[in-house]
Amino acid sequence: MRRLLRWTVAAAAVAALLGAAGWVALTWVLPHHRPALHDGERYGIDVSAHQGEVDWSAVAGDGIEATYLKASEGATFVDDRFAQNWAGAQAAGLDVGAYHFFTLCKEGTAQAENLLTQLRGVDADDTALPPVVDLELSGNCSARPSTEVVATRLLDLVTAVEDETGQQVRLYVIDSYAERYPLPDELADRERWVRRILLRPSEDGWAWWQVSSRARVEGIDGPVDLDVVAAG
């Protein structure tokens, strides 16, 4: 009986230590982890109104050199901190770009006009990072239009944005989206923003790599997405 009690106490102690180690990893180690950079790479973040007020000078002082900011979603939604974030990030010396959350249920031309209106509002030019289209099923409309309809809407969006900005759009594509809606062949050569938490992507050719969605960065109250910007 005493031996069983000792084993029970020892097992409980080990479990407590493992739990404490896991808590430390989740609350401090992982949020502060930054992967080693290869030659020419830089750290970036992506930000929306969810991050609240951002102190961009503090962000720059924490080694962040570039950022993508949410500008728009669908045909009408506008991130209400986009213009403020753009001005603040530019003033702090970061490279700045905008991203648009693509909605399955709205026409591509209307979505393009929504994004372009926001870019015009901040006087974006070809020195900005190329616009990004964010392709995800999570958070999208509940309807699931046909592959052909979605491809047409996406191509209309990309074409209109590229025609006005003179920049090739980058694509952020979540796996579940790509499985349901494979990218049209016409977009196969677009640069990618890839998501691979903590581990360096195995594929080559990415432009941005999302490392974490729970990073801690000075100047931001709460978690933020941490990215690595490819060299070049």
From TrEMBL:
It is an enzyme of class 3 (hydrolase). The lineage of its organism: Bacteria, Bacillati, Actinomycetota, Actinomycetes, Micrococcales. It catalyses: Hydrolysis of (1->4)-beta-linkages between N-acetylmuramic acid and N-acetyl-D-glucosamine residues in a peptidoglycan and between N-acetyl-D-glucosamine residues in chitodextrins. GO terms for molecular function: lysozyme activity. This is Lysozyme. Keywords: Glycosidase, Hydrolase. Its EC number is 3.2.1.17. Belongs to the glycosyl hydrolase 25 family. GO terms for biological process: carbohydrate catabolic process; cell wall macromolecule catabolic process; peptidoglycan catabolic process. Gene3D superfamilies: Glycosidases.
